[in-house]
Amino acid sequence: MGYNDKVYTKMQGYEFEGIRQFFHSAIPLKTLVIACPDPRASGAVDAVAREFNQISWPGEIIRDANGTKVGSTMNVGAVITTGGRAQDALRSITALHHLIGLENVVVVHHTWCGLTAFSADALIFGHQRENGGDISHVHDPATLCISNFDDSLRFDVNLVRNAPGTPRHLNVFGYVYDTDEDKLIKVIEDRGTKLA
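-> structure tokens emitted (196 positions)
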């Protein structure tokens, strides 16, 4: 069996709702953290797990009697994006909620982040000067840097909340992770609307 054969839609008797129910029970992922790859902020996901009393990060693999990997205990997951900015995580929020059923999305920006070292205009100008490409219309300038954590978190939480692929009942939070203190500071709590 080649790797291209290891696709759920190619399984004999494939039926999407059955696969979806399998994922809902096999992976209890409830909280998705959007965080930065900066190693100084590597404790942010653990801090969110503790904050939400979901201490199974990264979780353990569950195997069946044959030793096949069939699930995980992970209830906190991460999407890593530069600066922990939410724009690049929107597709993951939609797909993971549909497949697994998220309850919370947590956007985490961190102190001393590299995205605080320049302005959007400087990045656009620098890219054009160094690489010859105009990116001024490719990315929303508000997503390119962080000049104020309250503003960047407000922007990203609103972006997640108002994205067409974000279900209304998801809770969306914004935190700053202080890399000097190794602690989370809650800035925004946007509770979703209850399902009927």
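DSSP finds five helices and seven strands in the chain.
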